[in-house]
Amino acid sequence: MGKKYWCVPLCHNTSDNVTENGSKVILHRFPMSEKKSHIKRQWITRVNNVRANFVVNDSSRICGEHFEGPFTDQSLPTRFPSKPQKEVKTRRPLLKYELNVDNNNNIPPCDTQMSHINDTSILEGLNENVHAMHNF
Q1: Domain range for residue 59?
Q2: Which of 48, 22, 45, 3 is nearest to 14 (CA)?
Q3: Per-residue pLDDT tens digits for 39-64
Q4: 72: in domain
Q5: Measured at the alpha carbon of residue 56, what is the angle toward residues 52 and 60, in degrees to the nearest 5?
Q6: Cα 69 from Cα 57, distance rounded (Å)
Q7: CB 11 within 8 A of CB 63
Q8: Which single residue of 7, 11, 15, 114 has CA 20 to 30 Å from 84?
Q9: By three-state DSSP, how is residue 60 classified?
Q10: N- to C-terminal Cα distance for the chain?
Q11: What are the beta bridge partners of residue 63?
Q12: Which residue intervals define the domain THAP-type in the entry (predicted)?
């Protein structure tokens, strides 16, 4: 016997499962006859509401737990699990830093002029530090 494909997400029933009232779970095929093509389209539409881009094939099944009341050839699946929520990734909170700037010009003047610095590695290190602080 070939593998049957359940098309309802989060449903893992098999024909070995038992319902709440003690009967075995029935796996229903999609209607295949031309006379029931309108029913088949409705089944597909309803499954597409919970499973995007679903394509029916000969092995596709919907278990009886997704139908209300006694199953007939006009029954439509109506019981579906709510859509799984996408996992929301939380971001760490941004840290705010206050810059203590002395606007009173009480900062003593620098003794070294930038033009006198010949060691470029110092400037590169400063530039990396400023860049790292800016992106933090």
Answers
A1: 5-66
A2: 3
A3: 999 999 988 888 888 888 888 889 88
A4: no
A5: 110
A6: 26
A7: yes
A8: 15
A9: strand
A10: 60
A11: 27
A12: 1-96
Q: Which pTM does this prediction carry?
A: 0.52
What six digits make up the tokens of 100? 């203590």
- Locus of tokens 């002029």: 113
The answer to the question of residue 123 being in a domain is no
Does any domain span residue 115?
no
CA dist 25 → 37, 42, 59, 63 (Å): 25, 22, 17, 7
Tell me how many degrees the CA angle 52-56-58 measures, rounded to the nearest 5: 155
- Angle (CA) 14-20-23 rounded to 5° is 60
Distances (CA, A) of 92 to 17, 42, 89, 95, 97: 44, 45, 10, 9, 15
Is the per-residue pLDDT at 33 higher than 70?
A: yes
Which residues are 29's β-sheet partners?
Answer: 61
Residue range 101-126, pLDDT digits in tens: 656 666 666 666 655 556 666 666 66
Nearest to 59 by CA among 2, 116, 122, 125: 2
Phi, psi of 52 (to 5 degrees): -65, 145
| 95 within domain boundaries | no
